[in-house]
Amino acid sequence: MHPCSSVLHLLLRCMRGCCRHTRSRVPRRLRRHVSYIRLIFKSLYFNSLTNSDVVTDSILEPVFWMVEVVTRWFGMVFVFLVVALTSSVVFIAYFCLLPLVLHTYSPGWMIWHICYGHWNLVMIVFHYYKATKTPPGYPPKMKTDVPFVSVCKKCIIPKPARSHHCGICKTCILKMDHHCPWLNNCVGHFNHRYFFSFCLFLTLGCMYCSVSGRHLFIDAYNTIDEVSQPPYTYKDRMFHKSVIYMWVLTSTVSVALGALTLWHALLITRGETSIERHINGKEAKRLAKRGRVYRNPFSYGKLNNWKVFFGVEKRSHWLTRVLLPSGHAPYGDGLTWDIYPLKKDMMPV
User: Fold this and answer.
1) Rounded to two decimals, what is the model's pTM?
2) Phi/psi class of residue 159: alpha, beta or left (left: φ > 0; alpha: ψ in -120 to 50)?
3) Residue 164 near residue 173, CB atoms below 8 Å
4) Marked catalytic residue, from 169, 172, 180, 209
5) Is the peptide bond before 231 cis (omega within 30 degrees of 0)?
6) Could you confirm whether 155 is annotated as catalytic?
7) What is the pLDDT of residue 149?
8) Which of 316, 309, 321, 320 is nearest to 346 (CA)?
């Protein structure tokens, strides 16, 4: 037994020596990277709470990082595109379509187009400006008595209910819905209404341009092949191309943005944000396996959710706060959500 034990002991010492000799040849900087990668790999299965979502998020972390960097750096480019494309449609409407309306339409239709077009334009400009310039709301950095549900792993500060961390803004957002690159801003508690109203009125404006300009588009499309022949001039060719450009752009935006607006309208009806839709869905499935039903604690009923969202307290607010520009603040401070403990009709309007 002794010779065998001695041989095994010598073999183990030789193997340790070889490992140390090989480890000493590796540069210290490279060893740090190898150790860090090994630590990351071990973190995927460090405890029993790890699931497929955690593993997927860890694997896709480089992709998320690239998206955050690109969105952060190109935020102003997206804002410029929104302003430029909207301005181009307004320019065509004023210098190409408005003279046509004044010369061919009846006084009634003329008043309708001028009033509705300018009202829609004012609503779009107002809500887009407010959505980009209004901070979404941030949790307090200092210690307070505000109740919280967790601690942010990146900000290392308490997170109130409905708050989430935005990797692009590098901070937590109150009642975060998502980070909108077209606003170069997060959509949160204090600017959520401005974002939705901008989407709604821009969709209505694009639908208005698409429907009212469909006959002009058909005429311009049918004559575009004949513009090289007289009596068409350079001004006529530019008019036809402008009408085609405006109709294609507004029709495309009305379909794409209309679908997004309907999705957010459904979320508002349910009293949840885009992030909460994902979280609530997972929670509903988890409770369904136990034979229980999940109920959203932040939903006050379909109609009341809209009243809370728009800040409607009386009947006149449907006009002054929904159909006209209004800079009123939303309900609550975004930190606590016990302002409406009852599920009945809170505002009988």
Assistant:
1) 0.78
2) beta
3) yes
4) 180
5) yes
6) no
7) 85
8) 309
